[in-house]
Amino acid sequence: MKIGVVGASGYAGGELLRLLASHPHFEVTAITAHSNAGEQITSVHPQLQSYAGKKFNAFAPNEFASCELIFLALPHGESAKVISQLPATAKIVDLGADYRLESAEAWATYYGGDYAGAWTYGLADVEPFKSLISKSTKVANPGCYATSIALGAAPASEIADMTDVVVVAASGTTGAGRSAKINLIASEVAGSLTSYKFGGVHQHTPEIEQALTKVSGVDAKISFTPILAPMPRGILSTITAKLTKKISTEQAHALYSSYFAKSQFVTVLPLGVMPKTAALTGSNHVQIQVAVDDHTSRLVVSVAIDNLGKGAAAQAIQNANLMCGLDEAAGLNFDGLGV
Amino acid sequence: MKIGVVGASGYAGGELLRLLASHPHFEVTAITAHSNAGEQITSVHPQLQSYAGKKFNAFAPNEFASCELIFLALPHGESAKVISQLPATAKIVDLGADYRLESAEAWATYYGGDYAGAWTYGLADVEPFKSLISKSTKVANPGCYATSIALGAAPASEIADMTDVVVVAASGTTGAGRSAKINLIASEVAGSLTSYKFGGVHQHTPEIEQALTKVSGVDAKISFTPILAPMPRGILSTITAKLTKKISTEQAHALYSSYFAKSQFVTVLPLGVMPKTAALTGSNHVQIQVAVDDHTSRLVVSVAIDNLGKGAAAQAIQNANLMCGLDEAAGLNFDGLGV
Amino acid sequence: MKIGVVGASGYAGGELLRLLASHPHFEVTAITAHSNAGEQITSVHPQLQSYAGKKFNAFAPNEFASCELIFLALPHGESAKVISQLPATAKIVDLGADYRLESAEAWATYYGGDYAGAWTYGLADVEPFKSLISKSTKVANPGCYATSIALGAAPASEIADMTDVVVVAASGTTGAGRSAKINLIASEVAGSLTSYKFGGVHQHTPEIEQALTKVSGVDAKISFTPILAPMPRGILSTITAKLTKKISTEQAHALYSSYFAKSQFVTVLPLGVMPKTAALTGSNHVQIQVAVDDHTSRLVVSVAIDNLGKGAAAQAIQNANLMCGLDEAAGLNFDGLGV
Amino acid sequence: MKIGVVGASGYAGGELLRLLASHPHFEVTAITAHSNAGEQITSVHPQLQSYAGKKFNAFAPNEFASCELIFLALPHGESAKVISQLPATAKIVDLGADYRLESAEAWATYYGGDYAGAWTYGLADVEPFKSLISKSTKVANPGCYATSIALGAAPASEIADMTDVVVVAASGTTGAGRSAKINLIASEVAGSLTSYKFGGVHQHTPEIEQALTKVSGVDAKISFTPILAPMPRGILSTITAKLTKKISTEQAHALYSSYFAKSQFVTVLPLGVMPKTAALTGSNHVQIQVAVDDHTSRLVVSVAIDNLGKGAAAQAIQNANLMCGLDEAAGLNFDGLGV
C-alpha cells in the first residue's frame, strides 16, 4: 500500500518515517518537506539509515497521486492549504491541529486564522473514537499533551468532578519542534525546568475538553499548566480532580484497569508502580497510575507517554491501521526503550 | 564566630560547607559525619577544595564545645538524638524535619517514631517567621518542597481558596539524597520523569499546611504530587487554587509583587517572564510568576528555587544570620549560575 | 525456534529481551536472573510490556533443555560456570567477557580468576570474524568499547601505525551496569564528565588488540582512555594513529567506504557529517567518519554506536542470526531513535 | 575601581557579570552588548538578580571613559575594532581570540581576516605567563580548551615527546555560545555525543602549541579532537604523549604535584581520584590527574575545568587581579558546585 508523508523534516515527521520503515503493509513512496526540500533525509534525520540516498522533495500534488494513505505533519494552519491538492480518495491522518476542534470559536481563540472544520478525532484507544476512526477516511491525530491528559482523565468522569480538572504536564523538548530558537538551545534547557504558555492559555486546552466531554458525556473544564523538561522525549501528566463519591485507591485502580482492559497500548500499572517516561520511549504505549488522596478527597492520576510516539507518530499509525482495516498494532508491536 | 556542622557528608551538608567557606563571619571548626567519618572531605565532596586535607570526624560532643552556632544536616529522627549532647547555649539550625511540625499526630502519620517537638519554623522571607527567627536560638529549617510551595502560596490567601490548593512540583535528584539506590542511578533517571510518594502522602504536606495556615490565618489544605526530574538541582512548583474573588492577572501580579517587595531573595518576575530553575542554582534566590486563568477561575503560581540552596543550605545560613543579628544576606550575596 | 536468556535483569539482558520480542524467528521460552529471580520482568524493566505477567526464574538447567539457542548476559566469570549445565547442542552467544580472550595471560592480567578459553569472536561486520561466526555454535560477543574501536580502527592498518593507536572513548552510564553504586547515581553523573580505569588499564584493551591484530595481520597496540558521559546510552570513540603513508582525507574516506561497502550496519558518513550517538540509539547500526590531520600526519576516526544495541544485545542477535543461517539483519531492520 | 564589560550578553559575559558582582575591589559601571542593546540584563541572563533593573547599552566610547579596567567578551575579530575607542590608559583583558596568537600566519589559517597582533597571554597559573601578566596592561585571556590542555600538558615536557601530543577534549554546550543554531538545540544535543571541527582544524590548536612551546622551551605539536557533550558547562581533556624516559605513575604524579605546588587554583588530585567537571562548575579551579600507561609507554593526563569559569570569566578576573596588583584570588575564593 503506497503512502505519503507531507512535512517529514520535523521531529514528528522523522519519527513517522522511522516507524513506517518497518511497517508490514505500508510502503512510503512520497516524502516532502518545505524548508528542507532538496536535502538528503539523513542530513536532517541522521538516524534514518533506511532512507539513505533519498531526498525530501518540495510538495507537489503529483507526488501523492498514487498514494492511498497520506500523513500530514505540518505546522498548524498548513494542513488545510494542502488538503485540496491531495487525491480525494486518499485516506488522510493529520498530525497537526487543523481538524481537531469542532468549535470555530475555540479555534479562533487558541490558534487564530481560518477555521478548517473538524475531522474524526483520533484518540485511538478509547470509545467512541476508536469505532469512529475505523469508519473514517480523514482523521485528526490528537496533540501530544491532549493524548496523555484525555486518556488519563477519561475514566474519571464516574467518580470525579470533570468541571474542574487540574493538570500539570511536563514535556521533553522535541514537543517544541525542530526549530532554532534561543530558549530551546541545550545550554538554556539543560538541568532546568520552566513553565510556558502559563495561565491556562495552551492551545491543547479546548482539544482536551472536547475529547473528555465526548468520552464522558459531561462537560469538562481543564486548568492546564505545561512545563518544558530537560529531556528530548516524553510527557508526564499529573491530573487531579475532586472526587464526587467516596472511593478507595483500590476501587479507583479497579475502575481504571477495567476501563482500559481491552486496550493493548494503555497499561494501568500495578499499585505502587509509577509511570516513567523512559519506559515508553519510541513506542505507542501509555502507562497510567491512579490514587485517591483521602486528605483532600481528590483523585490523582499520573500518565506517561512518548510525545513523539503515542503522542504523535505511533498513534498516527494506529489510526491509519484502523482506517485501513488492519490490525491496530501493525508496525507498532514493540516495547519502549526503557533506558 | 566558631560554628559546627553535624552530618556534613550529604548533599545539603556539602552545600552548607561550600557556602560557609566564604561567609564573612562564620568559621567552621567542627565537621562530623556518620558513615563517612575518617574520610577526606574532598573524597566525598570533590568540589570542596577549601577543605582540602580535612577529614570528617565521627560525632563527639566535645567537638562542638566551643561552637556558638551549629547546623544539623541529618536524616529525620537523628537530630533529636544529638541535640542534648550539644552546648545548651549554642544556636542551632536543624536542616532536618525533626522540629518542623507542631502536631505530634502529623509527625506520627508522616514520619513515625518519637515526636521531638517544634522549633521556630525557618521560612525566613515571610512573616511571622522572619521576626520569630530573629528572636530564636533554635530554628527548624524548612523542607525544600515546603519552601517553594509555602512561599508561592503565601500571598494567595486573600484571593484564593486555601482549603483546596493543588500543587505539582518537580525536583532534581539531589533532593533524594546522596544514597546508592537503584532508582536513583543515572541510567534510570536520565531523560525520564516519574512521580513518587503519590496520592498525597509526601511528608512535606503537613509542613506546608502548617506554614500556610500561620502565614495566612486561614486553614490550608494541600494536594501535593512530587516528581523526580532528570537534573541534579532545582525545584519547580506549580500551585493552583480557585479564586475567591474576581481578579485580573495584573492585579494578582501586583499583589504578589507587593507581598514580596521587601524580600531581597524573592523576586516576582515581570509579567511574561517565567521562573527557571537553572537561574537559581547555587543561590538563596526564589523566582515567582503568577497568572489568573479566567477560563477556570483559578490562580496559577510558578515558583523556582535551588533545592540545595534556598531549599536547604542557603536558607539555613539566612536563618543563622537572622538568629545572630547579622545582615540576613551575609555570605549569600551572589546570583545563581544561570547555565 | 526456542531460545533462552541467562541473566536477563541487567541492561544488556533487558535490551536483548526487548529486541527478541519482535524477532521473526526466535521465541523466548526461558528467562532467568540471579538476584532478581522471582520478580516480575516488568518490575525490573518497566518498558517490557511484551513480557507483562512473566517472571524471572532462578537459573535451572532444565529451563533450557529445549532451547536451541541461548544468550548469556552475565558478569564476567559467571558464563563459564553455567556453560556445562546447558544443552551441549545449543548454540550459545555469550555477551560477557569469559570467552573473548585467546591469551590466558591477558585474562589473568585484566580480569583474574580461572581462564575459560576462547570462542569465535563475534565482531560480526568484518572478516575474518563474519565467516567464522557463520560456522560456529559458540560465539563470544564483543565488548561495547571493543566493538566501536575495533570497527573504527580495522581499515586503518594499510595506512597507519597500528602499534601506537590512541583511543579516547566516552560511554553512557548503562555501560557501567544496573548497579546501585554511589558514583553512578544521577546526582553524581548529571552534567559531568569523568574518566575511569585510567592509565591504560581498561579490560577491553587486550580484546581490542587481539581483534585488530586478527583483522589486520599486524600486531596492534592500543592506548585506551574511557570516560563516563552524562547520558544513558551511546559510545563515541575517537581513534588516532600516525599515518604510515601520505594520504588525503578523501583517500582515507574512500578506503573506509570501500572497506565497509558490503556491511549493512556500518555507515561511513559523507565527508563533513559527524557520527552522533543518538542517531544509533536502540539499533545495530554504526556511524564512522574519518579525517587526515595534515598538521600532525595523523589519521583521526570518530565512531558512534549504542553500547546496548550494537555494543551488546543487537550484535548478539546479529551473531545468532549468522550462527543459525538466517539473514543477519533478521529482527534488526530498524533505525536508531535519533532524538 | 570602575570597570566595564564590552559584549556582556553571551555566556562568558554573563558569567563575568555574575562573578564581578561579588568582587571586593571592582565596581561594574559600564555594560554594553551589541544585538541585545536596550534589553534588561535579566531578560538575557535571568540569574543576574544583582543587575535587576539595569540594561545593556549599545557600545559607545564615552561609556568607558572613566573605566580603569575593561573586559572584552566579543566574537573573534571584534575586539580589535573596539580597542582604539577605549581609554588608552585602561587595563584590558580580552576574552576573545584576537590578541592570542603571535603568528600572523596561524591567525590567517585558523581565523582569517585582519591580524591584530599579540598581547601577553593570560595563562595565569604558570610561568612565564604569570609574571608577564603582572607587568602587563593588555592581556589576551586563553581559550577554554587551550586553558585545560596547556595546563595539563605544561609539566610533561621533561618526560614526554611534545611534538606529538594527542588530545581529545569534550566540552559542554555553553562553549558553543549563546546562539540559536539547530545543532545546538536541546533535542539534538540531549543524550548524545558528537565530534566537531574534526581532523585537527580547531582554532585553539595553534594557541595551545604556542603556549606549550613558551612554557616548555621545546616546539610542541598537537593533534586535537573536540567533542560536544550533553551538559551545559565543563571541559574534560584527555592528553597523551609518548614518554621520553622510563618513569612510574608515582614519579609522574610527583612531577605534576611539584609543578603546580604553588598554584592555588590547580589541584593535582591524589592518585586514584579522577577529575570531574561538575566539581569545578562556577569556579576558577582546575583538577588534574596523571598516569603512566606502561603497556604503551605513554603519559596520560586528565584535566577538568569549567569552560565558563577557569576557561573564560574566572581566569579573566584572575588576570585582572594580577594586572592590578591585587591578590590573584580576589573575588575567586569559592569552590565549584559539585552537583
Automatic annotation (TrEMBL), chains A, B, C, D:
<dbReference type="InterPro" id="IPR036291">
    <property type="entry name" value="NAD(P)-bd_dom_sf"/>
</dbReference>
<dbReference type="GO" id="GO:0070401">
    <property type="term" value="F:NADP+ binding"/>
</dbReference>
<keyword id="KW-0055">Arginine biosynthesis</keyword>
<comment type="similarity">
    <text>Belongs to the NAGSA dehydrogenase family. Type 1 subfamily.</text>
</comment>
<dbReference type="GO" id="GO:0005737">
    <property type="term" value="C:cytoplasm"/>
</dbReference>
<keyword id="KW-0963">Cytoplasm</keyword>
<keyword id="KW-0560">Oxidoreductase</keyword>
<feature type="active site">
    <location>
        <position position="144"/>
    </location>
</feature>
<comment type="function">
    <text>Catalyzes the NADPH-dependent reduction of N-acetyl-5-glutamyl phosphate to yield N-acetyl-L-glutamate 5-semialdehyde.</text>
</comment>
<protein>
    <recommendedName>
        <fullName>N-acetyl-gamma-glutamyl-phosphate reductase</fullName>
        <ecNumber>1.2.1.38</ecNumber>
    </recommendedName>
</protein>
<dbReference type="InterPro" id="IPR000706">
    <property type="entry name" value="AGPR_type-1"/>
</dbReference>
<dbReference type="GO" id="GO:0003942">
    <property type="term" value="F:N-acetyl-gamma-glutamyl-phosphate reductase activity"/>
</dbReference>
<feature type="domain" description="Semialdehyde dehydrogenase NAD-binding">
    <location>
        <begin position="2"/>
        <end position="134"/>
    </location>
</feature>
<dbReference type="InterPro" id="IPR023013">
    <property type="entry name" value="AGPR_AS"/>
</dbReference>
<dbReference type="InterPro" id="IPR050085">
    <property type="entry name" value="AGPR"/>
</dbReference>
<keyword id="KW-0521">NADP</keyword>
<dbReference type="InterPro" id="IPR000534">
    <property type="entry name" value="Semialdehyde_DH_NAD-bd"/>
</dbReference>
<dbReference type="InterPro" id="IPR058924">
    <property type="entry name" value="AGPR_dimerisation_dom"/>
</dbReference>
<dbReference type="Pfam" id="PF01118">
    <property type="entry name" value="Semialdhyde_dh"/>
</dbReference>
<comment type="pathway">
    <text>Amino-acid biosynthesis; L-arginine biosynthesis; N(2)-acetyl-L-ornithine from L-glutamate: step 3/4.</text>
</comment>
<dbReference type="GO" id="GO:0006526">
    <property type="term" value="P:L-arginine biosynthetic process"/>
</dbReference>
<keyword id="KW-0028">Amino-acid biosynthesis</keyword>
<dbReference type="Pfam" id="PF22698">
    <property type="entry name" value="Semialdhyde_dhC_1"/>
</dbReference>
<dbReference type="GO" id="GO:0051287">
    <property type="term" value="F:NAD binding"/>
</dbReference>
